[in-house]
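User: For my dataset I need records formatted as: sequence, then structure tokens, nothing else. Please produce one.
Assistant:
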Amino acid sequence: MENAADALQMAAAVLIFVLALSISINAFGEVRQVSQVLLDYNDREYDYTYVEENTDSSGNVLTERLVSTESIIPSIYKAYKENYKVVFRDSDTAQDASGLLGNDGVYRQRNAETGQPEPVYEIDLNTNWGLGEGQTEDFIMAILYGDDLDNFLDIQRTFQRNSGIYLNNEGLYDKINNRKLKESIGIYYQGEEGLTEEEAANVPDANKTEKRVITYTPV
């Protein structure tokens, strides 16, 4: 009788151990899944495929990768605060991106001499025409999503009237969505544009402002 009681106690202990082990394994599995979801969420901006290493005429390695809207849109959001310049081109040697974005560009801007709106294929918000922070955010949202924004017409009229900027009804997101683009990253110093190498070398370091240029071209 006493042995039977001991056996029942041992069996109960084994069942409790197995139950506790099962709960622990299940809990660890759920933690791992949650951790993976958080990692995927944090890393989604960097979901890309590397392309072959490339060099320029001087042998300098160019930083390139294949990206989609998940990487392009955050880069545009960061363009203003982190002093980026975002450029779209049909190829490495092209002067515009009319094939990729159409003849209306990212947006159009009134030419001071002709008075006609001309397409612009780059985003450089440090030449933001004296816009306040709220207006800059409106500008970014409008060029990205166009008339999908509820207040797009108001934003469109305001920019056209005050800054000579013509915002497109079709946003940049719709134009490049579901496409892979080659992203090339370079750096230059503001104030050296148009200077010869000798002239640029004589510019004091204190007067140089580093600026990152991100160029997107179709593949």
